[in-house]
Design brief:
It comes from Candidatus Cryptobacteroides avicola. Keywords: Glycosyltransferase, Transferase. GO terms for molecular function: hexosyltransferase activity. The protein is of the alpha/beta class. Helices cover 46% and strands 13% of the residues. The strands form two sheets. The chain has a six-stranded parallel beta sheet, with helices on both faces. A two-stranded antiparallel ribbon has the order 1-2. The relative contact order is 0.16.
Length: 250
């Protein structure tokens, strides 16, 4: 499968339908502008990316930027909407059993109920909202691993924000042998629960979903979108000029 180099990671050149048909085992990560900036400063996050089997473009901004390259990314596949397509694609597949891990208290359970109603079966076999900072509590992490294993899940979606969710998956995935597919998908659980609304289709198609989210949560997202993430354009400009250097390769 072909991939496109954006800064210091390789992003798969794949369309949504192909991904639905081919996605089986491994770890799915969906990079956006924020990820690409963090990957310049966080070596552990970078190492996680090197081990992931499925690295798929989440961002319309990154997708459009890739048009300046010889081989552009064919389309953005936002993780939050892709997950809906994924479970509907597998709604009659008894081997697809999903566990939702993340979001605030009660939200994962609400998302579970909504998804099971939509698919017409208990495709989501478990849901849990961990405590804030759970990743630093080894006792709680082992309890989470036990919950997933006892549920019989074959797919684990972790929605805890980047880079926390990706690092947690890589640290504990070997302890969950029944899980074949791991997905790191941010706010997806909130979207499925209906507690967080996605941008209207017109905003999504125009690449302005990030602006819609900012208008909903300006205090939380101002620094991320208008300060931190602006560095992406600096790094990408250096790539276009042929002077970008991967900070983790000497």
């Amino acid at each position: 499968m072909n991939s496109i180099r954006i800064l210091n990671i390789d992003i798969l050149s794949i369309r949504k339908q192909e991904l639905l048909e081919q996605l089986g085992k491994g770890v799915l990560i969906t990079p956006n502008v924020d990820h690409l900036v963090k990957l310049q400063k966080d070596r552990e996050f970078y190492e996680v990316y090197q081990k992931a089997e499925w690295v798929v473009c989440d961002s319309n901004i990154v997708c459009r930027a890739s048009r300046f390259l010889k081989h552009p990314i064919p389309e953005a596949i936002p993780g939050s909407s892709f997950f809906t397509d994924y479970y509907m694609y597998h709604k009659e597949d008894p081997d697809c059993r999903i566990f939702l891990l993340g979001a605030a208290e009660g939200i994962a359970q609400k998302a579970r109920d909504n998804i099971n109603v939509k698919t017409g079966r208990d495709i989501v076999v478990g849901a849990h909202s961990p405590s804030y900072g759970f990743e630093k509590n080894e006792i709680e992490c082992q309890e989470l691993v036990k919950l997933v294993n006892e549920s019989g899940a074959t797919v684990l979606l972790v929605g805890a924000g980047a880079p926390k969710q990706e690092k947690w998956i890589m640290k504990y995935k070997e302890q969950m042998p029944g899980v074949k597919l791991f997905m790191a998908l941010g706010a997806t659980i909130d979207f499925e629960a209906g507690t967080l609304k996605r941008a209207p289709k017109a905003w999504q198609k125009s690449g302005l979903e990030w602006l819609y989210r900012f208008l909903k949560e300006p205090k939380r997202l101002f620094r991320r979108y208008f300060i931190d993430d602006m560095m992406f354009f600096w790094y990408f400009g250096k790539q276009l000029l042929g002077v970008y250097k991967n900070p983790w390769r000497k």
